[in-house]
Structure formats: C-alpha cells, structure tokens
Amino acid sequence: MKTRFVLVVLLVLAAVAAAGCGGASDTKQASAAPGSGGAKATKLALVAYSTPQVVYDQVIPAFAGTPAGRGISVSESFGASGDQSRAVESGLPADVVAFSLEPDIDRLVKDGIVAPNWAATPTHGLVSRSVVTLIVRKGNPKGIHTWDDLLKPGVQVLTPNPFTSGSAKWNLLAAYGAKSAAGKDPKAGLDYLRTLITKHVKVQDKSGREALQNFVAGTGDVLISYENEAITAQKKGQSVDYVTPPGTILIENPIAVTTKSKAPEQARAFVDYALSKPAQEQFAAWGYRPVDPAVLTANASKFPTPKGLFTIRDLGGWKKVNAEFFDPNKGSVAKIEQDAGVSTAK
User: Fold this and answer.
1) What is the phi/psi pair of residue 8, to 5°?
2) How far apart are CA 342 and CA 163, in angstroms?
C-alpha cells in the first residue's frame, strides 16, 4: 500500500511539473471556444518594418477568422527595418519577420535565425512591392515632377536615415539609379546624391513612417517615400499629393518564417495567408503593389509602370550596393552622410 501511495504521489508531482514547464511557450492549451473541439491557442510574434502596420492590422484579424488561423493570435512589433532586424538578431522573439529589404532578412540568415532558402518561394520571398515616389504638398506648389526639381533653390526635402531605415536606402538608390542611367554613370549618380543630401535634405528621421509624420506635420516641401505611403496618407485624409518620377526603382519587400519559431506550421500558415488573394487585396487597398498576379492585374490602373523603372539587380544587387554605398567605414553614401553631419552608426 505504501509503495502504491508513493507511486501515485510521484505521478501527480510529475504531471504538475510537466504543466509548469510549458509556462513561457508560445503554443499552449487554452480554454476552447464553444464548438472548437478543444483547439489549442497559439501566439505568434510578427516583427516588421513600420509602414505596413495599417495592412497587418487588417490582415491579422482576417487570418484569425480562417480555418488555418483559428486559435492563433499575433503580437505585432513595428519600427525602422534595419533596427527591427538588428533587434531580432539580438534576441527579440519573432516567428515571422517582414522587412523593407532583402539585406535585413539576410542578416538573420547569417545567425541561423532565418533559413538560407527563405526566398525559394513562388513570390521569391516577397509579400509586396512598391516604387519610390515624391510626396508633395496639396496642389504641388513647388512644381515637383522630376529628380532635378528637388535641387531647385529653396526646396527642402525629407528622407529617412539609410543607416536605420530600409526605405531610405530605396529612396537614395532610386535617385542614384535615375541620375546614373541605372548605374552606368556612377559619378553622375553620386554627384546628384551629394548635392541632394548636403544642400536640400532638411531632416533624416529614423524610419519611413516617422518621416511621413514629420512631413504631414508641416516640415519640408517634398518627402521621398514609397508610393504606398503616399496612398496611405491620402486614404487617411492627409492633404498631400504625389508624383512618380519617370526614373525610379522597384521596391521589393520580403517576408519569412524564423527558424526559432515554436509554432512553425502556424507561422507558415500566417505567411501563406499574407500571400493569399484576400490579404493581397488589402495590401493593394493601402497602396502596395501586390505580388499576386491576379490582384495586380485587377489594380493595373492604380499601379502604372513608370517608364524608366529599374530594379536593385540593375545596380548590381544588394551585396554589391551595400558594400559600395552603405558600408559605414568606406561606403560612398556613408561618406556623403558623414560630410552632412548625419550619423552612420548602426
């Protein structure tokens, strides 16, 4: 009898200990909703760059209403793309990462936080696209239409800091590519950037979203930004217009599931939903160019192709561009920013 009693006590203690071990897990048993059949509740962490917050605020509850998203909640962290990537690198928990540009994902590949084949998907690892555009005051009082117009006397320009913001890198590369014939005349492109940054850029905020808020608050004459930011601002009733210069760059925004996720199947289901037609329609509604071909075709009039559109590959790819332009110690753009008194610390 004593032996049987001891065994029962040990089994009870073991069960209590096992339950306690689940304390901080992202996936845990939850009270089942009526008719749910005892479904488990899963919490995912999305870490993303700042501008698509308005989209994910729509996509997340819509995902939760699907069979694949049943019982899944998603916490959201938004900020400057480079800062967010470095935060995940330093230990910020993330099941899904969605950044402004490929290098911010690749940083996590080096640390084993994202799989090396993350881009081996039908959309090449992308969840959305955009183009660099010029946001101006209502009615375009300064007559801004081209990159040359930004160098008019007295024109004050906003663009974020490229050493914290992914959107800032896209912005400067759009200007550089347009003025260098997509990289064929590097000197012309860098000369333009030097004049733009040192004589016309008034403020360099930390992120694309902060730059938009600063512009809407009345700072500057022109904001170099994403097309989607311009459309979002108008959708929110802000008194702005925008023009897309003939020469500009195609922005490509990646998304990936991390290798550290405690719920990889659910994280993959979330990414799959972000690429689905309903979610891609939400991206389109907020001004992002969808990666779903059918949704893009349905919104063709909203997203015309600029005559001089080029890609990061036309400039040599991100590895080349990051080394030559944005290396804090020897990059050509880093040197221009330092001469302008801007921090290039990451």
Assistant:
1) -65, -45
2) 10
**Residue 142, Cβ density class (10 Å: 0-12 exposed, 13-18 middle, ≥19 buried):** middle
If asked whether residues 77 and 187 sit together in one domain, one would say no
Q: Do 209 and 146 share a structural domain? A: yes
Q: What burial letters (b/e) apply to 174-186, b meaning 16+ CB within 10 Å?
A: bbbbbbbebbeee
Angle, helices 277-285 vs 53-64, to 10°: value is 150
28 three-class SS: strand
The amino acid occupying position 313 is R
**Residue pair 154/200 in contact by the 8 Å Cβ criterion:** no
Q: Do both 119 and 184 map to the same domain?
A: no
- 91 Rama class: left (phi>0) / alpha (psi -120 to 50) / beta: left
Instruction: Confirm if 272 and 292 have CB atoms less than 8 A apart.
Output: no
Q: Are both 64 and 100 inside the same structural domain?
A: yes
Q: Which single residue is written with the structure tokens 């590949």?
A: 109
**pTM reported for the whole predicted model:** 0.86
**Residue 41: predicted pLDDT:** 86
DSSP secondary structure code for residue 134 in this structure: E
**If DSSP codes are grouped into helix, strand and coil, which group holds residue 128?**
strand
For residue 275, pLDDT over 90 is answered with: yes
> Does the residue 186 lie in any domain?
yes
Cβ-proximal residues to 240 (8 Å cutoff; 6+ apart), any chain? 135, 136, 137, 138, 215, 216, 230, 233, 234
3-state helix, strand, coil in the chain (%, to 5): 45, 20, 40
The answer to whether 80 and 168 are in contact (CB under 8 A) is no
The tens digit of pLDDT for each residue in 226-242 reads: 999 999 999 999 999 99
Residue 68 belongs to some domain of the structure: yes
Residues 185 and 211 in one domain: yes
Residue 101 domain boundaries: 39-128+252-298
